[in-house]
Amino acid sequence: MHLTHLECPRCGRERPADEPRNLCDCGSPLLARYDLAAVAASVTPEQFGLRPADLWRYRELLPVVDPRFVTTLGEGWTPLLRAPAYGAEIGIPELIVKDEGLAPTGSFKARGAAVGVSRARELGVERIAMPTNGNAGAAWATYATRAGLGATIAMPLDAPTVCRRECVAARADLRLVDGLISDAGRWVAGLVAESGGRIFDAGTLREPYRLEGKKTMGYEIVEQLGWQVPDVIIYPTGGGVGLIGIHKALHELRELGWVEDRLPRLVAVQSTGCAPIVRAFAAGEPRATPWADAHTLAFGITVPSPLGDELILTALRDSGGTAVAVDDAAILADLRDFAAREGLLLCPEGAACLTAARQLRAGGWIRAGERVVVLNTGAGLKYPETVDVSTVPLV
Fold it and tell me: Which residues contact 241 (CB under 8 A, 6 or more apart)?
């Protein structure tokens, strides 16, 4: 395909992409780069519509060289669903939800796992290890098994139980940590160091290819809107790979000449109980400082110290976007209100984006008539406790 090299966005150093790699020597994540001129010469936007409805339709812009190594469960091409009733209520008639809950493992994490595992397999990795807040571990365990790779997954005790069950079903080596994802990350780092190279660290942004799977959300949004960009894209942000990936995709599309210069404003949504990016953005800081006593019911965005903080903040500022923190009570209220009006049960992280959209429209940051895409990053069915059924009458 058209992958040329890996590049460090912090120091600019380039690395070959022909062997497994983690971070740059300066500590920054590495980004995959492509020969976009060659891509533009080999494919046109119209051709994607003739291909299967999965993320591999964008194969020229993905890092797997040999298709024999592609590991897939049909991930990608999730729907854009208009939300006219709820949108009218909050003053955004052009409100659209991209529903990642329909991915094979019930969350957008399937995208990163599909591409990350496929590339790891191609590069000769035999076992991966990673910390997770739940859904990523479930996805990587599932795809690793399908690819014939081993997987060690470290997960906080408070993570959604269904994610634990998914890992066990896939026969991953699951370890539970009494703490946060940062504590699980320290345990994984020790395991990888002790393995002498036998275990590859596939943690968030610690390898370059999870991001490449996530960026396909950006491609899909644009293609599904008729190769037009929305005005605003709102994303629940923990580790931030999805937001960074969408930003990368939009810039690749612009360089290819497939979209015009105007790009969407990106919004990072966090919880008031864990908002390191919001705090850094408001202060004008280039890096985020760790958040103490992190907690929120939107467990997937409980990341007190994201490795990709620089890249997240760059994406927000480059796009003219913003960062918003919302509280758990508002998240639950909007989750239930949206389900009652639109018939779709969102995950808490997706509902947080609705809260942000409502607040940003009320404050005027989202203007009248703008087209707004919010990401529902997982299936609401994975979080049954968000809907109270204790008062349902027995007949």
Answer: 112, 204, 205, 210, 211, 214, 308
Take residue 353 and report the two structure tokens written for it.
Answer: 């984006």
- Quick one: pLDDT band at residue 1, thresholds 50, 70, 90? confident
Kind plus residue range of the DSSP H or E element containing 282: helix 276-283
Instruction: Provide the mean pLDDT of the chain.
Output: 97
What is the C-alpha to C-alpha distance for residues 202 and 111, in angstroms, rounded to an integer? Answer: 14
As a whole number of Å, the end-to-end CA separation of the chain is: 62
Task: Give, in degrees to the nearest 5, the angle at Cα 342 between 336 and 344.
Answer: 70
In angstroms, the Cα distances linking 149 to 63, 71, 197, 304 are: 18, 11, 15, 30
DSSP state at residue 297: S
Strand partners for 242: none
In the numeric block, the tokens 């854009």 are attached to 80
Selection from 220, 234, 227, 251 nearest residue 80 by Cα? 220
pLDDT at 322: 98
Residue 329 to residue 201: CA distance in whole angstroms: 36
- The pLDDT value recorded for residue 261 is 86
- For the record, the structure tokens of 24 come out as 């740059």
| pTM confidence score | 0.97
Asked if the model's pLDDT at residue 174 lies above 90, the reply is yes
Q: The sheet that has 232-236: what strands, in order across it?
A: 80-82, 95-99, 372-376, 232-236, 265-271, 322-326
Q: What is the pLDDT of residues 91-131, one digit of tens each?
A: 999 999 999 999 999 999 999 999 999 999 999 999 999 99
Q: Are 17 and 35 in contact (CB under 8 A)?
A: no
Amino acid present at 122: E
Q: Which residues contact 242 (CB under 8 A, 6 or more apart)?
A: 108, 214, 217, 235, 375, 377
pLDDT in tens, 327-347: 999 999 999 999 999 999 999
Which domains are assigned to the chain? 80-107+208-386 (3.40.50.1100)
Q: What is the pLDDT of residues 36-47, one digit of tens each?
A: 999 999 999 999
List all residues 6 or more positions away from 1 whose beta carbon is below 8 Å from its beta carbon.
34, 59, 60, 62, 63, 64, 65
